Amino acid sequence: MRVDVRTLGHQFPDRPWLFRDLDLVLVPGHVYALTGPSGSGKSTLLALLAGWLAPQEGTVERHEISDISWVFQNPHGTPRRTALDHVALPFLARGAPVHEAEQDGLSLLVRFGLADVAHQQFRRLSGGEGQRLMLARAIAARPQLLLVDEPTAQLDLSTAREVNDAITRLASPQTIIVIATHDPETRDSCTDHVDLAHHQPAFLPGTRAR
Ligand SMILES: Nc1ncnc2c1ncn2[C@@H]1O[C@H](COP(=O)(O)OP(=O)(O)OP(=O)(O)O)[C@@H](O)[C@H]1O
């Protein structure tokens, strides 16, 4: 399982290049922080990795990847379902008996510091709890590629810290994880760092920028 990115570059019609000459090999067990100034193309790169968007130059090859999940800035859960329901569901969907699915779900809630709210409805969770639950649910679903867009953007400092703490426990041997972020603490919670600033035309050698 692997994502190979080769000499990738993208620009939208009649707009300047966002980035060029990006080479990456993404593998499971790592959590890649994707940083860069606002408008540098972080969300665009996530869409290219997912295959939602075709690159203007270069290639993105996904090897042995069929399931791709996203976690967005705002947690989207089912309001009246409990936290445990949210993480048990992916296990049930894979055919686990209820008891086992709930046990596995509970272990994930413990890992993400959510054991105390296991039986709380989603609508009663705080912003940080909701966001950590989205990460826990994404891990439970075991996608081969997990794309996370600005997970702390809507959170205050201490709530963001809780989410960043969860990110330090996110790495999974079954999943390649990429997190677009502005937050230096999120970047430091990841295992690897890709800085789009180094791939903006102004930073690249030669005269290709225009
Ligand atoms: N479909 C589109 N058509 C034209 N321009 C687009 C499109 N999608 C994004 N852009 C532009 O591309 C640039 C990069 O956007 P993108 O959202 O990828 O940046 P970002 O680094 O994620 O920004 P931020 O940190 O502010 O979220 C922006 O100037 C944006 O307006």
Explain how this protein is built.
- The longest helix is centred in the middle third of the chain and has 15 residues.
- The protein is 31% helix and 22% strand.
- It is globular and about 55 Å long.
- The protein has a single domain, classed as Rossmann fold (3-Layer(aba) Sandwich), CATH 3.40.50.300.
- A hairpin with an 8-residue loop joins strand 1 and strand 2.
- Helix 2 crosses helix 3.
- The model has no long low-confidence stretch (mean pLDDT 92).
- The protein is built from 6 helices and 8 strands.
- The chain starts with a strand and ends in a 15-residue tail after the last strand.
- The protein has 210 residues and is of the alpha/beta class.
- A 5-stranded parallel beta sheet has the order 5-6-7-3-8, with helices on both faces. The protein has a 3-stranded antiparallel beta sheet with strand order 2-1-4, covered by helices on one side.
- Bound molecules: adenosine-5'-triphosphate (ATP).
- The site of adenosine-5'-triphosphate has 12 residues, from helix 1.
- This is ABC transporter ATP-binding protein.
- GO terms for molecular function: ATP binding; ATP hydrolysis activity.
- Keywords: ATP-binding, Nucleotide-binding, Transport.
